[in-house]
Automatic annotation (TrEMBL):
<dbReference type="InterPro" id="IPR004447">
    <property type="entry name" value="Peptidase_S41A"/>
</dbReference>
<comment type="similarity">
    <text>Belongs to the peptidase S41A family.</text>
</comment>
<dbReference type="GO" id="GO:0008236">
    <property type="term" value="F:serine-type peptidase activity"/>
</dbReference>
<feature type="region of interest" description="Disordered">
    <location>
        <begin position="180"/>
        <end position="214"/>
    </location>
</feature>
<keyword id="KW-0378">Hydrolase</keyword>
<dbReference type="InterPro" id="IPR020992">
    <property type="entry name" value="Tail_Prtase_C"/>
</dbReference>
<dbReference type="GO" id="GO:0004175">
    <property type="term" value="F:endopeptidase activity"/>
</dbReference>
<keyword id="KW-0645">Protease</keyword>
<dbReference type="Pfam" id="PF11818">
    <property type="entry name" value="DUF3340"/>
</dbReference>
<dbReference type="InterPro" id="IPR029045">
    <property type="entry name" value="ClpP/crotonase-like_dom_sf"/>
</dbReference>
<dbReference type="GO" id="GO:0030288">
    <property type="term" value="C:outer membrane-bounded periplasmic space"/>
</dbReference>
<keyword id="KW-0720">Serine protease</keyword>
<feature type="domain" description="PDZ">
    <location>
        <begin position="263"/>
        <end position="337"/>
    </location>
</feature>
<dbReference type="GO" id="GO:0006508">
    <property type="term" value="P:proteolysis"/>
</dbReference>
<dbReference type="InterPro" id="IPR005151">
    <property type="entry name" value="Tail-specific_protease"/>
</dbReference>
<dbReference type="InterPro" id="IPR001478">
    <property type="entry name" value="PDZ"/>
</dbReference>
<dbReference type="Pfam" id="PF00595">
    <property type="entry name" value="PDZ"/>
</dbReference>
């Protein structure tokens, strides 16, 4: 694969040269004004994007409208600050942003900053006045929690009414939490300190609803005091970064501008070294959402925080929680991160609208947890191998380090020594990683041949081949995927599907991320005349696209499994197609390849699987739960009547607990670590605990059980 590395290196060098040339040309004008940072940055970005992006945009009125819509959405995502008259003023610029870029001016950015600054001051005075009076939670009224279903306030009076309901909702949530906490304390007996065992009553006085309401308003006021303090910290560089990123994101969701501070955060994430809870977060429409759980991290081991959760509040141990709704991502991350051994309590909103407080003890990521692991499953006299691959890992700076392809190869060899009759390769929640490892891993299951095609914006596609004719494992194979299987996972799954080498099972589709990005340091590309206004940050841009060997892209559509199973995440609007301005699906000329000689009988296997799923109580319960969650997710209005709200939350909690109940009710599979691994771990408690954490949740995994059944149908 050395030629692959050379190809990538040359391509990156060519693109860097393009950036350098573009930067020398961007400041050609007749006047002698001193270059302004915002002008230089935006021009440099657009020059580079026009020259090197996979699908460059025309800088015209259509481009302006896209930038306008995305920036407005991010400027006031909750629609609680700007009035409709403000939006009307800004809308005059929706077809002029392209002209501003050419002129080197920024009237739209300046006006939006001015208007937003004024409205923030207006609202800052407003919320203090509203919170000075008690709320009546017996009145029948509702609050719309989904900004996409609301409009900007028509005037100041409408804005005040919107904030009244918003603050009432925030207060009611906290009152409900206090009531739940008080009920728990009443129901929980306290241990007696006397010699004679007894049950103590309670050590805390019971608070009245009125006392709770007053306390809740104080807490809400403090939250917003902190929130507006953060808003006041927004400076010109922050506003420029938001504007620049809005421009970059109109090309595609994975093309981004990184301010210098954000680039440092990105680099830290790419190294795999974390100290904190180990969750990847993203800010979207004013909310901090969990996009991924780092395998092996404190969150991964604790198990309650999931991708798709929205973090609403953060508390340091027993301290008062701080609201992070509407907070800048970097500030929110700084509250969640912390030293190993310290506790953080997160109040999260689950995708079904229920709320939960999750306590996590911060830790460093246990790197071992990120590596491939295997086990055996004994079912009805048949022995099945199982491999979990959390990510396609590799260290490109150290050729002697571990890689996912080599590790999977070793796990397959160990499973062969165990005489397994089939193998499940689990790619659920695997967001991708090393392309080279995906190619090499596919080669473990087939003879030599093409695995994936990679194409730039112009020219012919490059075909990445497996050149090793050896087949590491040639028996029955199932690949498990879900909505969070992306990038390299999709490449491997697509290759196995095209070769008819195995059966792909899981969610209705994978994520649909079929693009390649590269990062360029803008400071390196800029000429010396701009040294006085550096640093500029970095630009991550999409330069290539993945294509299956059958010619179809993995972009947007993802991979459609051969056998689709009911899935707890199927009600979520997740995936590339749900993001802003994704690149579309297309196809190119197929590569030349020959399907696997002993291809599985997909139609027959699908029919048998459908019959089992239809008869399974666990899958029936899961399907019903998903349907109820879909209904709850679409019902975004909440009652501001406390009794009704608490009843709704209790029902939501019941529904959210059902998945765990489904798992607990499922038959237990006989799954165990490999004998060779047990001998290697010996009395090492860390390794023993790791093996236990690995196999425990799999024993009642109904999706894995069905994958085993599909393999047994082929034996």
């Amino acid at each position: 694969m050395s030629s692959t590395r050379i190809k990538i290196g040359l391509y990156a060098s060519v693109l860097l040269a393009v950036f350098v040339l573009a930067s020398y040309k961007l400041y050609q004008r007749n006047d002698a004004r001193t270059p302004q940072k915002d002008e230089v940055l935006i021009k440099a970005m657009l020059q580079g994007l026009s020259a090197a992006h996979y699908q460059p945009e025309k800088i015209d009125d259509a481009f302006s409208k896209r930038v306008f819509d995305l920036y407005l959405k991010r400027l006031d995502s909750s629609k609680k600050f700007l009035l409709q008259s403000d939006v009307d003023q800004l809308r005059k610029y929706q077809t002029d942003i392209d002209n501003e870029v050419l002129r080197g001016t920024h009237e739209f950015l300046d006006l939006s900053t001015q208007l937003m600054g004024q409205r923030v001051k207006d609202v800052q005075a407003l919320y203090h006045d509203i919170l000075a009076k008690p709320f009546d939670f017996t009145i029948e009224e509702t609050f719309e929690t989904e900004p996409d279903k609301t409009t900007f306030p028509a005037n100041a009076a409408a804005q005040r009414e919107e904030w009244r309901k918003f603050l009432k909702y925030q207060t009611m949530v906290r009152v409900a939490e206090m009531m739940d906490e008080q009920t728990k304390k009443k129901d929980k007996p306290l241990a007696s300190t006397s010699a004679t065992p007894s049950v103590a009553t309670t050590s805390e006085p019971t608070r009245t609803p009125e006392q709770m309401e007053a306390e809740a308003r104080k807490r809400v006021e403090k939250y917003f005091d902190d929130y507006f303090r953060d808003l006041q910290q927004t400076d010109a560089n922050d506003r420029l970064a938001t504007y620049a990123n809005s421009i970059a994101n109109t090309y595609d969701p994975h093309t981004e501008y990184f301010a210098p501070r954000d680039k440092e955060t990105f680099d830290q994430a790419m190294t795999g070294r974390f100290e904190g809870i180990g969750a990847s977060l993203q800010e979207k429409d004013g909310q901090i959402k969990v996009s991924d759980i780092i395998p092996g991290s404190a969150s991964y081991r604790q198990g309650e925080l999931k991708a798709g959760d929205i973090i609403m509040r953060v508390a340091q141990g027993a301290a008062e929680p701080v609201s992070i709704e509407g907070m800048r991502l970097d500030k929110a991350v700084s509250l969640i991160k912390g030293k190993k051994g310290t506790e953080v309590r997160l109040t999260v909103k689950k995708p079904d609208a229920s709320t939960k407080i999750i306590s996590i003890i911060r830790d460093v990521v246990v790197i071992e947890e990120t590596y491939a692991q295997s086990a055996t499953i004994n079912d009805g006299g048949k022995k099945i191998g199982y491999i979990k691959l959390p990510t396609f890992y590799a260290d490109f700076n150290d050729s002697g380090s571990r890689s996912s392809a080599n590790d999977v190869k070793k796990e397959l060899e160990k499973l062969k020594q165990e005489n397994v009759q089939g193998v499940v390769l689990d790619l659920r929640f695997n967001g991708g990683g090393s392309l080279q490892d995906a190619v090499e891993m596919a080669g473990l299951f087939i003879e030599s041949g093409p695995i994936v095609q990679v194409r730039g914006g112009q020219g012919a596609a490059s075909v990445y081949n497996d050149k090793d004719p050896r087949v590491q494992y040639g028996g029955p194979l199932v690949l498990l995927v879900n909505k969070y299987s992306a990038s390299a996972s999709e490449i491997l799954a697509a290759a196995m599907q095209d070769y008819k080498r195995g059966v792909i099972m899981g969610s209705a589709s994978t994520y649909g991320k079929g693009t390649v990005q590269r990062i360029f340091d803008l400071d390196d590309a800029m000429p010396a005349e701009f040294n006085s206004i550096k640093p500029f940050g970095s630009l991550k841009l999409t330069t290539q696209k993945f294509y299956r060997i059958n010619g179809g892209s993995t972009q947007f559509k993802g991979v459609i499994p051969d056998i689709v199973l009911p899935d707890a995440y199927s009600y979520l609007d997740q995936g590339e197609k749900e993001s802003d301005y994704p690149l579309k699906w297309d196809e190119i000329t197929p590569a030349r390849y020959r399907a696997w000689n002993n291809a599985p009988a997909i139609d027959k296997l699908k029919q048998a699987s459908s019959a089992r799923v239809a008869a399974s109580p666990s899958f029936k319960q899961l399907s019903g739960m998903v349907q109820r969650m879909v209904k709850r997710k679409d019902d975004t209005k909440v009652s501001l009547k406390l009794a009704s709200y608490r009843a709704e939350q209790q029902q939501a909690k019941v529904e959210s607990d059902k998945y765990e109940a489904i798992q607990n009710a499922a038959p237990v599979m006989a799954i165990a670590p490999l004998a060779v691994d047990l001998r290697a771990q010996g009395a090492d408690t860390i390794k023993v605990n790791r093996a236990s954490r690995f196999t425990k949740p799999l024993k009642k995994d109904i999706t894995l059980r069905e994958a085993v059944a599909v393999l047994k149908d082929q034996i």
